[in-house]
Every structure is written in C-alpha cells, then in structure tokens.
C-alpha cells in the first residue's frame, strides 16, 4: 500500500469515527449511500481546508 493510500485510509477512518459511522477494514457495502456520501463530503472539506488554509462554509459558497 502506498503512503498516499494509507494516509487517505487513515483520514477515512478518522472522519467516519468523528461522524459516528463504524467502518470495517475491507468491505463496507452494508453502509448506506448517505453514510458513505457524508464521509466523502467531509473528507473533501478537510482536504480543501488543508490545501487552501481556508475553512469551507456552505453559506458563503453560493
């Protein structure tokens, strides 16, 4: 596993834990689209914040 992949996996599990979603290592096909989408959306926000140094705010994005 590459460093990028393991860093992404670590972030994925951290975000899921913060959101109260229990992810298994490996198969997670039993999770709802809402759960998986929420995790992916939050990861996107965190990456944006790390890259730009700005906090993502939905109210200001329109």
Characterization of the model:
With 62 residues, this protein is mainly α. It has a domain at 30-54. The protein is 58% helix and 0% strand. The chain is built from two helices and no strands. The chain has helices spanning 3-18, 33-52. The protein starts with a helix and ends in a 10-residue tail after the last helix. The model has no long low-confidence stretch (mean pLDDT 87).
Write the layout of secondary structure elements.
Elements lengths: L2 H16 L14 H20 L10
Features:
2 helices; 62 residues; 58% helix; mainly alpha
Measured by DSSP, the beta-strand proportion falls in under 5%
Q: Give me the number of helical elements.
A: 2
Distance between the termini: 38 Å
By secondary-structure content and strand pairing, the structural class works out as mainly alpha
Unreliable stretches covering 5 or more consecutive residues: none
Order of helices and strands: HH
General shape: flat
What's the Cα radius of gyration? 13 Å
Major β-sheet, in short?
none
Kindly state the mean pLDDT as a whole number? 87
Q: How many E strands?
A: 0
Helix content: 55-70%
